[in-house]
Amino acid sequence: MLSITSQYLARFRRLDAGDGTPVLLPVTGAQRRFALVRAMDPAGRPDLVPMFFAFPRGTVDPVRLTAAANRLAARHPVLRARPTVLRGAPVLRLEPPQVPVIQEVCAPGEDAAAVLRRAMGRWAPDGSPLRLFLVPDGPEGTEEVLAVVLDHSVCDGQSLARIVEELGTAYDAGPGADGPSPAEVAAELNAYRHAVLRQLDAEERAGAPEAMAYWGERLRTVREQAPAARPEPLSPGAPPSGSAALRMPAPSGGASFPELLNACRAAVAVLYGAGHVVPLGYPWGGRPAGAAPVVGCFLNTVVFPTATGEEPDAAATAAAWWDDLDHAATPFDAVVHAARAAGSGWRGGLDGMLTVDDARRQPPLRLGAVTGREIHVDGRAVRGPFAVSVTQGPELRLRMVWDRAVLADGTAERAFTALADSLRASAPTPV
């Protein structure tokens, strides 16, 4: 029986006839997952990846910024592509670059965070996958906030660093600068297509029967555990999500990934109680061997079955995680299929997400002679019940966000405390 990736590649090859029709690009398993999640969402919400930068008020030139963003999208095909489904196959269709720079204003009593939450909440799925929002931070504020927002189906962490760097370079060139030459555009398009096809080849191999058997057994007992939505509605104007953040000394060499998984297990035990096997997801992967470092989404989402009520065993967690990494290229939709075929009732929803970043891979955005200060905008809508982000560097920066329609703030805050306590216990001696 053909794997999910094999079936997709066969359908795509029938579409891509090379007869002069508009250019179509295949999508990776990670991109198929985002399309699936959006299709399952009652409101059709996309997954968005925003970066927020505060600049002194009046220093960002919107005309210059628009020109820079469109030159960036002209160079990178995925930034001017539109997701579509053609004869049952999800693909990306190339369009001319049309990156909007949307200038918003604050209503009386509002700040930039409230305006940006509202702007991203009304994100229309058709349109540019890259959009920029510029908002003065209140009528008397001395700063303005620039939000660089991408549909997650076109970016990963490696892409974000390149986008920030190249957007600043294009801004420095000024609005009258030439865009990339036709030869440069063609070379980047070929590099992107080559990278995606190599990724799909790897995913096809990773969907072999032995991998499907592995994930079927690994996830056979998984069930989504998120409780039903809280009966009491949020108060009018209340942000849809809560958040908690903490900085702590980093252990020598940073916190290991198994330690982070065990810390998430401690949080899950507070949120859902003992006796459950909760699906926790984390992004993993990179560009396939031999592929250029193109902008695009190449990270698979790997599922870690997090058993609650068990005493965390660092060695057992590490061993299971290493085994998972041997099968980490199996596409998410194939993993869900394997779990269901093995008897799980899991439909692909994730109760939690864990992301880990390196502080050294987060370059600042510099526009002209001014460097933006990266900030957080809390209270944005989140996809699942909770998500944890960890930034490794001279210190550990922990952040947890949660859906307030599902989890009470007090419960989530206790879960965050359990997560932090677990990390302190695993590495009690800071550098």
Notes on the structure:
The chain has 431 residues and is α+β, with helices and mostly antiparallel strands. The chain has helices at 4-15, 29-40, 62-75, 112-121, 157-173, 182-206, 209-218, 257-272, 314-325, 332-341, 409-426, and strands at 24-25, 48-56, 81-86, 89-94, 101-103, 130-136, 143-151, 241-249, 277-284, 300-307, 352-358, 366-367, 370-371, 373-375, 386-392, 395-403. A six-stranded mixed β-sheet has the order 8-16-15-11-9-10, sandwiched between helices. Strands 5-6-7-2-14 form a five-stranded mixed β-sheet. The chain has a three-stranded antiparallel β-sheet with strand order 1-4-3. It is globular and about 60 Å long.
Quick summary:
The protein is of the alpha+beta class. The protein has eleven helices and 16 strands.
Relevant terms:
about 425 residues; alpha+beta; six-stranded mixed beta sheet; five-stranded mixed beta sheet; 16 strands
